[in-house]
Amino acid sequence: MTATLIGATGLIGNYLLEELLKDPFFDTVRILIRRPMDKTDPKLEKKIVDFNDSDSLLAAINNSDVVFCTIGTTQKKVKGDKDAYYKIDFDIPVNLSRFCKMTGCEKFILVSSVGANSKSNNFYLKLKGETEEAVIASGIKAIHIMRPSVLLGERNESRLGEKIGKAVLSAFSFLTPSKYKPIQGKDVAKAMLSVSKKSEEGYFVHENAEIKKISSGDS
């Protein structure tokens, strides 16, 4: 089995890469990256890809049994450019899902966000909702969408807004509905790995509580 991962340098992606490499279910773990990465492992296959080049992306995911997409950006990284935000958070996952369909990959697992809604007045939630709908429309046999809340864990970068969000949510956790409570990035990664082994067809949306349940092995 070959697993292909996009977003391996992010919080969830980094945890997921470690889980995939140590799981015997997958013989090959392929990561699509923009620049060279030092990490090595007998199972690891690294492909440097231009995500704006459809041919490059299509060739890179060929022969995948499951594709994991954990890629995402921030307003800070794109300097408030909404078009640039869409190119990363919408175009890449949607193109990947369509290429999965074209190459015969039957499982696609996407990290979205709690509150994703294509009809939302919030730019981020609307973007995530539109991405989900476009991925589902690709027609892949099995699609799993993760909708975690604020993520906990060690990042390779500092996100001030997220740190403030974590602090506020933690302080008022007793008042916060379960779907909005902070969740460990590692738990999301474990849940993604678990659902990748399921045989059910269709599309499935997993909120915080279910993600935690799946990651603990209860589902």
Tell me what you see in this structure:
- Strands 3-2-1-4-5-6-9 form a seven-stranded parallel sheet, sandwiched between helices. Strands 7-8 form a two-stranded parallel sheet.
- It is built from seven helices and nine strands.
- It has 219 residues and is an alpha/beta fold.
- Helices cover 40% and strands 19% of the residues.
- Helix 6 (185-195) crosses helix 7 (208-215).
- It is globular.
Instruction: Determine the oligomeric state from the structure.
Output: single chain
- Helix- and strand-based class? alpha/beta
The average pLDDT is 90
Strand coverage percent? 15-25%
Task: Count the beta strands.
Answer: 9
Order of helices and strands: EHEEHEHEHEEHEHEH
Computed over alpha carbons, the radius of gyration is: 16 Å
Order of strands across the widest beta sheet?
Answer: 3-2-1-4-5-6-9
Instruction: Describe the largest sheet.
Output: 7 strands, parallel
What's the SSE blueprint?
Elements: E1 2-6, H1 11-22, E2 28-33, E3 44-48, H2 54-61, E4 66-69, H3 82-103, E5 107-111, H4 123-136, E6 142-147, E7 151-152, H5 160-171, E8 183-184, H6 185-195, E9 202-207, H7 208-215
Parallel strand pairs: 1-2, 1-4, 2-3, 4-5, 5-6, 6-9, 7-8
Please summarize what this structure is.
The protein is globular, with a radius of gyration of 16 Å. The mean pLDDT is 90. It has helices at 11-22, 54-61, 82-103, 123-136, 160-171, 185-195, 208-215, and strands at 2-6, 28-33, 44-48, 66-69, 107-111, 142-147, 151-152, 183-184, 202-207.
